[in-house]
Amino acid sequence: LPLDVTSPPSIATALATLTALTSGTLDYLLNYAGCGYTMPTLDADIPTCTHMFDVNVWGPLRLTQALAPLLVAARGTVVMAGSTAELVGVPFQGPYCASKAALRLVSETLRAELKPLGVRVLYVTTGNVRSNWFNNVPAFELPRASLYAPIVKEIAIRARGEMDVPWMEARVYADRVVGDVLAGREGRVFRGATASILGWGVAWLPGWLLVSLAVLFRLFVLERGLLG
After folding, report:
1. Catalytic residue list contains 100
2. Which alpha helices (DSSP H) does the chain contain, by range?
3. What is the dihedral sign for C-alpha 29, 51, 140, 147?
4. From first to last of its 228 residues, what are the pLDDT tens digits of the chain?
5. Which CATH class is domain 8-227?
6. Residue 128 DSSP one-character state
7. Which residue of the set 28, 32, 37, 96 is catalytic?
8. For the purposes of burial, counting CB atoms within 10 Å of the CB of 219, is it exposed (0-12), middle (13-18) or buried (19 or more)?
9. Where are the domains of the chain?
């Protein structure tokens, strides 16, 4: 079933097809469409950021709005794919972090509003998962006049997903999320490599310490590159 979450006509076609196939009910809606963008915030292209918000935030909301009657009829479940990027401002992914933080708040609000209608909402804060994600993003190209030109190689490593960090296999991640959904869980879960650790850290560590950790593990090499 082809579907473009940024296209109301595409969503309307999908709705008509699903309604005919299921007699007007839908047990599960998994909002996993998304896109990323790695770029220093000072260099971020606003139209690109706007498109990313359209895919990552308004797309899931459009789809949920359109399919709500089917979900209510089935007392179904909405699943939103979040990211650990919502937890801490990740250098060179500011707009992406913002889009995921926005989606989390939309999901929390939907959970409260849909609960009286018998629909569950599950938000999955997703850590590092080995997938084709980085194979499907535009090639990274830093503007020539960027203040971050001296560390372009470091940023490009992040843009290509070549960081030396733990990764969870996609099959393992999928099995855990499916288990959550079939168990009737709602609210928020942490799945994927490092997701639970980061979630715990944000909940319990002082904000200044989190900033210090971000500087220690992400920026010390970059600072040396910028300042010589």
Report:
1. yes
2. 8-22, 46-53, 59-74, 94-114, 152-159, 170-182, 195-204, 207-214, 220-227
3. negative
4. 889 999 999 999 999 999 999 999 999 999 999 999 999 999 999 999 999 999 999 999 999 999 999 999 999 999 999 998 888 778 889 999 999 999 999 999 999 999 999 999 999 998 888 877 777 777 889 999 998 888 888 889 888 877 767 778 999 999 999 999 999 999 989 988 776 666 655 555 555 555 554 554 345 555 655 555
5. alpha beta
6. B
7. 96
8. middle
9. 8-227
Retrieve residue 172's tokens.
């393992």
Q: How many Cβ atoms are within 10 Å of 211's Cβ, its own excluded?
A: 12
Known catalytic residue at 96: yes
| Cα–Cα dist 228/224, whole Å | 5
Closest C-alpha to 77, from 33, 30, 38: 30
SS3 assignment, position 193: strand
Buried-exposed string 47-85: b where 16+ CB fall within 10 A, e elsewhere: eebeebbbbbbbbbbbbbebbbebbebbebbbbbbbbbb
Residue 186 DSSP code: -
In whole angstroms, give the CA distance from residue 202 to residue 6: 32
Residue among 100, 123, 148, 173 flagged as catalytic: 100
